[in-house]
Structure formats: structure tokens, C-alpha cells
Amino acid sequence: MLIGILETGRPAPALAGQYGTYADMVEVLLGGDPDLNFHRFWLPEEDCPESASSCDAWVITGSRCSVTEEQPWMLALESLLRKARDAKRPVIGLCFGHQILAKAMGGHVAPAPNGWQLGLKDYELRDRPAWLAKAPERLRLNAIHQDQVLTPPPGATLLANAPACPYAALSYGNWAVSFQAHPEFTVDFEKALLSAYVGVTLPEDSGRAALADLAKPNAATDSPLIAEGLLRFLRQQR
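^ that's the sequence the OP posted. Answer follows.
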């Protein structure tokens, strides 16, 4: 199964040199299935594939960009996602990917009323499709975002939410699933990412609080369970 990784952003070179790019992290996240192969597309340089059928499934990475900017490559990505829906090619969206998938399907994305969401966050599971059968009622994942989905698209199902993020995970039937958080981020990478930007482009108070949580001995995420679920989601498409 060929997975097209739609790269919409990359970490700063120093972080990427130590932890890999977001595409690398996607490959690690889905690395539990040796039958998956990957091809990367760097979208900001107009490398958006024309055909949604050129890969068996698609994963959209995170990005420091905002979908509200509506840059040409973002609009091309929205068009590709609608083509993927029509071609029944499954899609997984992560953070920016979650937002642009919702926007492409008719939802509304804007800055979160509560501001930046940083660090380890808990989300209540609101729906349990078969591929999420092993997930707990509460999911803990790494987050770093200012924008979020404020109005979900018609027909989307709420998978998980939190008081400060009411549409934290969405599904679109058996076709697509997306998470506002980052199941592909490790705790170590989240710590390094926040450390690099807190007090620079990220707020000092909430950033320091997030770093304190990440420094606790029991800091951990449910990323392994989400990875298992996403692999089951992809396998059901074969």
C-alpha cells in the first residue's frame, strides 16, 4: 500500500537534524506495518500531486502555516482532498492536516478563542469506530496549535473533544480521519519544540506550564494506541 505523505511544513533544521522531519515522524508512527510504502510531496514548493489516485492513501502533516492564509499550495491541497474523497482514497490529517481537511470539506477554521494549546492535552473520546476499539475513554496527546476547527464540515463525526478544543478529532465515514493533536510527536520532541519557541513565538506562561508537565517522570502519550488504530483504519481500506 503506497502512502502519500503531504508535507505542509518541516521543523527548524536543528530540530529536524535531531528528531527528523514531520514526514519522518509519520513513517515512524505507521511503521508497524511492513506492507506500507511511502512517497513524500513537499507542498510549499508546488509539489502537489494532480491525481488523488496516484497513491493508495494520504497523510497530511502539521505546519507552522495557517490554513486561513489560503496560499496557492493550500488551495491546491484542498482540491486534492476533495478529489481523494471522490476517488475513495483514505486520508489521515494531523494538526494543520486536520484543519485543512475540515476546511476543504466545508468547515470553518480560525484562531482558538482560548489561545494557544501547548503540551500534553487530554481529549474525551466521543465515538468509537471499529479501528479505535482499543482506545481509552480519555486520550492524551501532544499539542501545539493556535488555529482550530470552530465549525465542523457537514457529515463529519466528532471522535474526540476537550473544553478548549471542541472538535479535536473528526471522522468522515470510512474515508478520512483527523486529529488536531500530534500523535506523531514524542514527548522529547514536544519538549524540544516548545523550549525553542516559548517566549519567542509562543506565550511564556502557558508554554512554561506545558514544559513543566512534559518534564514530569510519568509524562507519556497515547500515541502508540493511536498508531495501532490508524493502521487498522488503513487496513480496512485494502
